[in-house]
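Reopening this ticket.

The earlier resolution said the output was attached, but the attachment link was broken on my side. Pasting everything inline this time so it's all in one place.
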Amino acid sequence: MRALLVFLLTSGGAAAAEWPESITTALFADADFTTLRPAEEIAQNWALLTEEDRATLRRDCAAEPVEGTPGPDAVARACEALPAE
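Inline output:
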């Protein structure tokens, strides 16, 4: 278990493969992660996310997207849609 934690903490975007529902529903309009919400809605939802969720997004957007759910393409599109801080 400890090895898995070390891997997740050191492998960049690994956590992006396991975003919590609070993040995925804030960014995507569908369960398949193919349709991003409109920019205005993403900005509103960003403000409603917890600081922990926002920190997760900042970290994962700064890392190289990895396989998982949502997939690398969806993660990249979501990161591009985040409001500037």
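Reporter confirms the inline version is readable. The chain has one domain: 2-81. Residues 51-62 form the longest helix (12 residues).
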